[in-house]
Amino acid sequence: MDCGDTPHRRDCPMIKHIVFWRLAEESEGHTKAENLARMKAAIEGMRETVPGIVDLEVGVDYERSAAAWDIALCAVFESREALDAYQAHPEHDKVRALVGGVVTERAIVDYEV
Predict the structure, then answer these.
(1) Taking the CB of residue 4, how many other CB atoms lie within 10 A of it?
(2) What are the distances in angstroms from CA 63 to CA 67, 70, 110?
(3) Within a domain: residue 70?
(4) What would the pLDDT profile of 39-52 be if each residue is shown by its tens digit?
(5) How many domains is the chain partitioned into structurally?
(6) 104: Cβ–Cβ under 8 A, 6 or more apart, which residues?
(7) Which of 94, 113, 8 lies closest to 46, judged by CA?
(8) Contact at 8 Å (CB) between 43 and 98?
């Protein structure tokens, strides 16, 4: 389906993209706290550079329980096509390289809103 410039039509729902990560205690010469700050800044930087993002929020966990993830991304995209374009965007590739070097686990869910 091509949603073109009208992503909020009933037949072109927006997409919520949620990602959770767990980080190594130390990686790439940085502590977990430093890598969390680096990730948060890099992810939030995509808000202004990647088209199709309606909303983007990054949160670092404060609880530190065994069941908790270390950091989460909750983003809303104009459409499935916008999410696909984000996945292929050069800025996302840069963030992916950073994240890939510091995370130990990842969970993702994408759904229509």
Answers:
(1) 10
(2) 10, 9, 25
(3) yes
(4) 999 999 999 999 99
(5) 1
(6) 22, 23, 24
(7) 94
(8) no
Q: Which residues contact 54 (CB under 8 A, 6 or more apart)?
A: 14, 76, 77, 78
CATH of the domain at 84: 3.30.70.100
Determine the residue type at 95: V
Asked whether residue 16 is assigned to any structural domain, the reply reads no
Instruction: Give the domain extent around 88.
Output: 30-112
> According to the model, what pLDDT value does residue 12 have?
80
**To which residue do tokens 């950073």 refer?**
98
In a domain, 75, yes or no: yes
What pLDDT score was predicted for residue 99? Answer: 97
> Would 6 be classed as within a structural domain?
no
89 φ, ψ to 5°?
-70, 140
Amino acid at 43: I
Helical residues (DSSP H) of the chain, grouped into ranges? 32-49, 80-88, 90-102
